[in-house]
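User: Can you predict the 3D structure for this chain?
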Amino acid sequence: MAKICFITLCISAALLLYESSAANAAELHPETLKAWSDYVKATEKRISDELSSKENFLSLDFQVASKAAHDRQALLSGNILIEKVSADDRKDIPDGMIHHWRGVVFMPGVSLDSVLSRVENPTAENVKQEDVMDSRVLDKKPGQFRLYLKLQRSKIVTVVYNTEHLIRYLKCSDSKAWSSSVATKIREIEKGEREKPEGHDSGFLWKINSYWRYEQVDGGVIVECESMTLSRSVPPVVSWIVNPIINSVARESMQRTLQSFRTRMAKSIQQSASIHLDP
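Assistant: Here is the predicted structure, written as structure tokens:
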């Protein structure tokens, strides 16, 4: 019992220390931003190469054949697959951390066109999530639009952001499509709704990109998402307790996003069926 109490005390002290350091403003340095840009370029090139493949399309298909087959079977059985793409304590990101995760979900009974319709025409219901407080389309052009989201992130501390995202989408064929979302503005909000200067805030969310792939298969659509975010680095003295929490939050966020997407699509199918059955 004494050992458990001591561990609890250490964890509490570590969290308090991190919360105290987080209250101080962090600064997004040019070298951190460059490291992020280099990482994004490398990731986007890899994604572009995969999308141009004539044999495979989803990231999961670029694995060892046995694992790819196993993952597809797990998906079709209803599982949501989530994995960490890169370590969040990368040593080549000065004063920052890149968090890169991938999630895949199978949406039974839907068509690629019905999924893309939600991507192309986002409504408050379409983007409704626990951490999305408000949303609206700012402008729209063929193949792209800008989306405003008011986000709330909370685990150790609660932080609210005004964000804007450039969404691009393209249907590659009758059975395949992709979309991307790049945050063009992330501003942390203080009390009174005043925005802090970009890159001079708590440092929990400096950048966020996501890349989506959609593939029509027998019985529905497989949806795959890669999400990358940039945040401040964690002080070494508390990294042993804070890093697992950060990973847990990222995994939960991906799980929630894909589960919510699947639930909304299922609800849409039920509503459509109900309308058609109405005399």
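Residues 161 and 188 are 4 Å apart (CA to CA). The first strand starts at residue 26 and ends at 27.
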